From TrEMBL:
<dbReference type="InterPro" id="IPR050982">
    <property type="entry name" value="Auxin_biosynth/cation_transpt"/>
</dbReference>
<dbReference type="GO" id="GO:0004497">
    <property type="term" value="F:monooxygenase activity"/>
</dbReference>
<dbReference type="GO" id="GO:0050660">
    <property type="term" value="F:flavin adenine dinucleotide binding"/>
</dbReference>
<dbReference type="Pfam" id="PF13738">
    <property type="entry name" value="Pyr_redox_3"/>
</dbReference>
<keyword id="KW-0560">Oxidoreductase</keyword>
<dbReference type="InterPro" id="IPR000960">
    <property type="entry name" value="Flavin_mOase"/>
</dbReference>
<keyword id="KW-0503">Monooxygenase</keyword>
<dbReference type="GO" id="GO:0050661">
    <property type="term" value="F:NADP binding"/>
</dbReference>
<dbReference type="InterPro" id="IPR036188">
    <property type="entry name" value="FAD/NAD-bd_sf"/>
</dbReference>
<protein>
    <submittedName>
        <fullName>SidA/IucD/PvdA family monooxygenase</fullName>
    </submittedName>
</protein>
Length: 346
């Protein structure tokens, strides 16, 4: 019987399995996709990490190539693929978990194809990409144009010549809007002015990253809540937006057909609204266990379930530090969780 079942074979699941192996556990990794790369192959084509390669390497597994570059989506997927191949444990792909319940020996994990697996412990490491957040926007109630989430965005070619409004003020919203502005007429609609981490693009060897890494060692994530992370400018995004390519406006106030109304009372036709409004944890398989609250958030502290001993989490935003939802944070959090789980076995 597997001692620890890791649900998810992306960055968080690989980090968890690696940390468990280092402490003598024998994890079994269940990945819904065809390979252990998580959601990285499914993000938009031009995506680059907003942090340098050296900053994102999992513990003991440096990213190949220039450590100060900002890796692309494909490079991250290749990196995780290599990490998975080097893990000395079983990884079962094509195993989407549908439920986790209590079992006499610990937990019973069921997959969509009917497999039943038991383990004394479970690490929920399924990330967020499968659960895009589409907030209620009353101003969109009467809109009949296309509405897409950033999870569905791939490249600007599909929007060439269109009038597009991107909703959001985070890193992905800014990167997508700037890229789209090369092929379409684009507005970035936000509730508040965009907050930037710095006023200039940050090079990969900047001391900024060392300072951020040090700050991310502190278990302050739960105390800081889930506020927006300032935009990290790695390619002149602020300059482009300040120049109006794209322009930034306060959020639209109403819609009628394919027209949006702006706060100044003007209206205009808009072909597509892109919601770059983030994601929420993809943990529905834990509902039968009763490990989530009414809003679907896990009842946990620092990655350890408050309700079910032996259930842990890796990859949740702010679960332990300010960077818990990133690859940088997942590596550290995985070690914390692994230590707790292996201590239970003794």
């Amino acid at each position: 019987m597997p001692r620890v079942i890791v649900i998810g074979g992306g960055q968080s699941g690989i980090a968890a399995a690696k940390a468990l192996l280092e402490l003598g556990a024998r994890p079994l990794v269940l990945e819904a996709g065809a390979e252990a790369t998580g959601s990285w192959p499914h993000y938009y084509d031009s995506l680059k990490l907003f942090t340098p390669a050296w900053f994102n390497a999992l513990p003991g597994a440096a990213m190949p190539g220039d450590p100060n570059r900002y890796p692309t989506r494909a490079e991250v997927a290749d990196y995780l693929r290599g990490c998975a191949e080097r893990l000395d444990c079983e990884i079962r792909t094509g195993h989407r978990v549908t439920s986790v319940t209590r079992d006499a020996g610990g937990f019973l994990v069921r997959t969509e194809h009917g497999a039943e697996l038991t383990g004394t412990s479970v690490v929920a490491a399924t990330g967020v990409f499968a659960n895009p957040h589409r907030p209620e926007l009353p101003a969109l109630a009467g809109y009949t144009g296309a509405v897409r989430h950033a999870a569905d965005y791939r490249s600007p070619q599909q929007f060439a010549g269109q009038r597009v409004v991107v909703v959001g003020a985070g890193n992905s919203a800014v990167q997508i809007a700037v890229e789209l502005a090369e092929r379409a007429e684009v507005t970035l609609a936000t509730r508040k002015p965009i907050q930037y981490a710095t006023n200039q693009p940050i090079p990969g060897d900047s001391r900024f990253w060392s300072a951020l890494s040090a700050a991310a060692r502190l278990p302050l994530g739960p105390l800081l809540g889930h506020g927006a992370i300032p935009v990290v400018d790695i390619a002149g995004y602020k300059e482009a937006i300040d120049a109006g390519e794209p322009d930034r406006r306060d959020m639209f106030t109403a819609a009628d057909g394919t027209s949006l109304r702006w706060p100044d009372g003007t209206t205009e036709h808009v072909d597509t609204v892109v919601l770059a409004t983030g994601y929420r944890p993809a943990l529905d398989y834990l509902r039968p266990l009763g490990a989530l609250d009414e809003a679907g958030r896990p009842r946990q502290r620092n990655g350890i379930s408050r309700t079910h001993p032996g259930l842990t989490f890796v990859g949740l935003e702010h679960q332990r530090t300010i960077l818990s939802g990133t690859m940088h944070g997942a590596g550290r959090d995985a070690r914390h969780v692994a230590r707790r789980l292996t201590a239970r076995r003794r």
